[in-house]
Amino acid sequence: MKRTVIAPVFVVFIVATAFAVAAAQSGAGATSSPASPASPAGAAPRAADGHPDLSGVWWPGSDLTVRPLAPSPAPASAPAAPAAAPRPRPSFASLYQPWAMEKAKTLSDKDDPSLHCTSVAFGTLNVSLYGMGVVGQIVQTPKFVVMLTETYHGFRLVPTDGRKHRDDVPPSLRGDSVARWEGDTLVVDTTNFTDTNWMAAEGLVSFHSDALHIVERYRRVDANTLEVEATVEDPKVLTGPWVVPKQTLRLAPFDQIMEVACTGTATAALMDAASKVNYGKK
Question: To the nearest whole number, what is the mean pLDDT of the chain?
Fold first, then answer.
């Protein structure tokens, strides 16, 4: 299946992701139903060692639908129907300790490290495999699970051979990951983060500390479905663990991700706009 690229890619990626953030953080997840009914999925493929093979390109299930920022007003003759407010799900930032809450109030779009081509520590759509985008690729080998994102050259090399966390590497933007199998579920444990990036992007204030610890659970339900759960701890800034809503990823109809590069030139206009007072706000 041929993928369509719309230029400039960076702007399209930010717009599409921004519209999907609300759904993902409200607990609706990152999954969208395909336009047409999918054929029944077969069993999850298995690697030579007997474990499920997580390899593939994974995405929400269809292209994101870009909608207007606000719905069109109803005609004057139509009575306004009362809408039940959805119960908000906790987010990373909603669990900030009081001092962190106060600090968050001093930050905004202009402080987002991603404007300087810095990758996020987790994922804007609550899926670390996506990073700041909406698609990621897994390549599984006998000793490693390689996780690739399209944005900012993001990658993680996750050993699955029983080794421990490394103690000879400096903190990094994506942390140091090791994994183990619990039955058919891959459990990925990530520590040793730097505190210079945010958990998410697109102006979602979500700074963290170097005590960040993320445990993810990947389970390939069938040939076309991957379920991801995560628990995030950061005792320096959070009041307790953040249990991320389960995300359901679909096998994409293409087998290779593309590069969404970032340069200072590409982000200069975004940085300038974000620095303006009340930019994008009424």
Answer: 81
Task: Please indicate, yes or no, if residue 16 is contained in any of the structural domains.
Answer: yes
Other Cβ atoms closer than 10 A to 209: 14
Query: What is the CATH classification number for the domain harbouring 200?
Result: 2.40.128.20
In terms of residue numbers, what domain contains 93?
9-30+47-64+89-275
User: Is 77 inside a domain boundary?
Assistant: no
pLDDT 10s digits, 194-246: 999 999 998 899 999 999 999 999 999 999 999 999 999 999 999 999 999 99
In the structure, what pLDDT confidence band is assigned to residue 70 with cuts at 50, 70 and 90? Answer: very low
Residue of 118, 113, 134, 131 lying closest to 274 (CA atoms): 113
Whole-model pTM?
0.78
Residue 160 has pLDDT above 50, yes or no: yes
- 225 and 248 Cβ atoms separated by less than 8 Å: yes
Q: How many domains does the chain have?
A: 1
